[in-house]
Amino acid sequence: MARTREKFVELAEKRVNKTIKDMRLVGNLSNKTNYLYTQKDAERILSVLEKEVKLLRSRFFSGGVDDEELFRLD
User: Fold this and answer.
1) Phi, psi of 32, deg, nearest 5
2) Tell me: the pLDDT tens digits for 7-63?
């Protein structure tokens, strides 16, 4: 597949918009009327998301690929 700006823009818009939607859905979990969670759970979720943003930033500026790690609450 040829590397094109158009393809990058198409995929970037699609993937970033999906990620924004998914992050908002995660944010919905903060509603204590509907869900029971601990401060530790919230901190773990935010920590892993912040880590992924840092890895994403690193990949864009270094061009490297990082190992994938799946999220799990203990």
Assistant:
1) -70, -10
2) 999 999 999 999 999 999 999 999 999 999 999 999 999 999 999 999 999 998 887
Of the candidates 49, 51, 55, the residue with the CA atom closest to the CA atom of residue 29 = 49
The rounded distance, in Å, linking the Cα atoms of 42 and 28 is 12
Alpha carbons 64 and 61: distance in angstroms, whole number: 8
As given in the structure block, the two tokens for residue 33 are 């009327």
In whole angstroms, what is the distance from residue 54 CA to residue 49 CA? Answer: 9
Residues 6+ apart with CB under 8 A from 34: none
Q: Rounded to an integer, what distance in angstroms lies between the CA atom of residue 45 and that of residue 22? A: 13
